Structure formats: C-alpha cells, structure tokens
Amino acid sequence: MRWWCSQTMEPWSWTPQPYVGVWAVVIALASLRWRALRRRRAATGGIDVTTRQRWWFWLALMALWVASDWPVGALGAGYLASVHMSQYLIYTLVAAPLFVLAAPEWWVRQVLARRRLYRVVAWVSRPLYAVIIANGTLLATHTPWTVDTLRGSQVGSFLLDAIWLVTGIAMWLPVISPLQEHRVASVPLRSAYLFGAAGLTAMVPGGFLTFSRTPLYSSYEIAPRVGLSAIDDQQLAGALMKVGAVPVIWLVIAVIWVRWANAERDGDLRPGSPQRPTSTALERDAG
Amino acid sequence: MGDLDGAIAPDRSRAAGRLDSQARWRIGTIVVAAVVLVVAGLFASRSQGQRAMAFVDLDGSVTMPPALLVDTDGERFDLRTETAGRMTLLFFGYLSCPDACPIQMAVLGAAFGDLPSDVRDRYTVVFVTTDPARDSPEDLRTYLDRFDQSFVGLTGSSDELRDAQFAAGVPAATANEPDADGNYLVGHATQVLLFDPDGVARRAYGLGVRQADWVADLKTLAREVAP
Q1: Which residues 106-135 of B are in CB contact (within 8 Å) with A?
Q2: Beta-strand (E) ranges in chain A?
Q3: ipTM reported for the complex, 2 dp
Q4: pLDDT for A76-115, tens place per residue?
Q5: Is the link from the previous residue into A71 a cis peptide, with omega within 30 of 0?
C-alpha cells in the first residue's frame, strides 16, 4: 500500500488504489476544524461560522481530496502531464481559495497570534510579494528538473502538492483574506493583482510545453501510456496551463466588480446619504 | 475569546517595509524577470542536461541473428539478409505487454517522426514478437502502425524466436502462468539493439531513453556511418 501518489512505472489500471496519506491529510484537516469549532463553542457559546463558510470548507476539502487521491492524483503523478497540470489548477485555483474563504476571521487571528505568524502572513499578503511567490512557485514547480525529481518519490510528490496548496493560499490572501487589512483595498488594483498573480507568467512554461517538439518531462514521457501520446499529452498540459486559470480569474474579477458596484449603489441609497437627483425630480424642478 | 479577536490589530502600516513603494516594485520586477529567465533556461536546456544514460556500447561479438521469420504480410523475412547494409534497431517484445514495449515503441516512433527523412531512411526498426501464440501478423501490423508505418514486425515459431533471441545476445522470453481469464505476461529483454550496416551489434538502449536522446544519437550515428 502506498501513502501518496507518485510515479511507479506500473501499467495504469482503473482498479482503485488506496492512498492512506491522502485520507490522513483530509481527516486531519477536518479534525483540526472540528477541534477549533469545539473550543470556540466552549469559550463563547457559539461557533461563529457562517453557512457559506461551512460549504466552502467541505468543498475545499473535496477539491483537495479529488486532486490528491486516485485516480486524479495517481494519473497526475506518474502518467499524464495534462492531469498533473489539472492538479496544479485544482490546488491553486479551487482548493486554496475555498480554504481561505472557509476560514473564519476569529480563527485566523487566533492562529496567527498563537503562532506569532501575523507578521509573516502580513508580509506574504502584500501584493508584490504574493505575485512573486505565486509566479515563482508556478515556474519553479513546473521545470522538468523539479517535476522529474519530485514526482519520482512519494515524499517529493507530497511536497510538490503541499507547495501548490500553501502558495495557492498565499496567492489568494490579497484578494479574499479573512483579515480585511490584508486585502488590497482598491478594487481595480485587486483585479490587476489577481491577473498578475494567476495569469501572467503561466504563458512561459505553457508556451514551452505547447510548442516543444519533444516531451520535456521524463516522468510522463517514459511512463506507461494512458490514451494520449506523450507529446499530445504535453501540448494539452501546456494549453491547460495557459488558459486553465482564465475562467476562474475572470469569474472572480467579475464577482469583485459586481459586489463593488452593489456596495456603491447601496451606499448611495443608504438613509442620510446624499441622493443624486433623478431625472423626474430635475424635470419637476425645472417645471 | 473576544479578546483574541482583538489581539492583533490591523497593522499593515506598521508592518510596511522600509523601502519606498517605487523601490519595491523595481526590486520585484527584477526578481520576477530573473526567475523567468532562470526557469526558461532550465526548460530550454533539458535535452542537454539528461543525456547521461542513453546506451551501453557492445563489444561487437554479437551479429544479426540468421533467422528466417514471417513479416506482417505473411512473407518470409530473412533477418540478416533483409537488414544488410542498413542501420537496424532490433527489439523483442509482445503486443499485450503493458509497459516496456509500448513505452519503447512510442518513444522510438516519436523520435522517428522527428528525424529528417534522409536520416530515418538509413534505419530499419524491427519488432520481433516473443508471444507468437497471441500476436498474429495482422495484429503486429496494426500495433506497429500506431507508432510508425515503416516499422517491421516479425513472428515465427517458438523455437525460431527463441533461437533468434539467443543469437541476438538477449535472454529468451518466458511466459508466466495464465490467470483465470487466460491472460498472461511474458518476461522479455527490454533493450533495443542497434546493429550497424555490417550486421554487428554496436549498442543496447535500455528502457528510459528519451525521444530527444534517440533523435540526437540516431542523427550522430547516421553521420558517422558512411552510406
């Protein structure tokens, strides 16, 4: 029995395989949350978690589980570069932001105070550093050397997955951090940041993968084939890297702008706020 | 617990760096550009960095097996005569093989697709089955066409195939016990043997040789060996 998905060189089989490490991580995360909520209830009488946060947490956990466990985890670790790329996208663009959204502010402040991590997280949350971390991780973890080295062992493969999740969380902090002071205040800047963090440099490795005439990753070239040829698989991986983040980024940007517009409108309509004259009122005054 | 909520006051201004905003952006841009360049270099230099393993040089004591086999058209194929005067890549495998055969053939097929026509015309790739009971000439042809239509597929009697493997200097393949469905694996040599135009085995390429390495080696060998 293996504890984490990695390259095995065994022929691919659709018979499910257990990966106990994946289950252990999922159970550990669920247990940590349960313990935190239980302590909160003991201290304040309530758990102070919204229904949405509950949903975000379980969806995040499910995304993490799907991306790490058989069959996606196994295919991505040792058979198909395109699935490997899908894993990266799930970790950074689905699981990571959902975990951030799921975290209640009181819990984040509690953890950061106890671990003296506040300054580190504040530093990581600065847009410039977050852009560098996100893009640096994207580039570094997709070089052939990194992928071929880490995917060969269970520890390395786990490390790669963990790096994606942690840096994915860091990437999303300036946009949706539970701590308001860590978010980029300006909505246009927040949108620009998101585009820079998640969509900018993906073109570089994506281009190499798409246009290379030979497979770049030996992990996926010298592997039992699962449907696609090595070069077709690599081109698909490159295409995913280049455009896979686009729908998520633009969806989030659209949500940010709609919310901003709604907040502006609500601000205008709030009792006591200066009212803009309506056309009817202007006509009446003129009359 | 309420006091914990207030334990950390928003202090972005206090935590703000000592550098001014312009300097931070400048440094950030330089760092990002440097990382992009380094990574681009790592991607671009891959084929140079992983050329260590590729092949084992042979001592020249093995020659092309003098085997009279059957090709995918059902015609007799004299291995030694038909390959004389050409560079030949010889591989023993079987169609139901789940790992080594499809990997070797896929990589070799992709490499052949990447070779200039004048180079690829100098080579013959021969796939000899080690499972004649299941691999018919027609199935061999269908299988090899997935990789390259120029690849030659051969079969024969069990004795002929065993003798050919011994003559090529590789251990004879052995079939495992069939499972309940009658399926079985065949243990066989996984290396591709390179024979020069004189029919002398020069190199053995193990499992794991990459497309870029094949292309580089086959081009070099084509230049080194006079037409």
Answers
A1: 106-107, 110, 114
A2: none
A3: 0.76
A4: 999 999 999 999 999 999 999 999 999 999 999 999 987 6
A5: yes
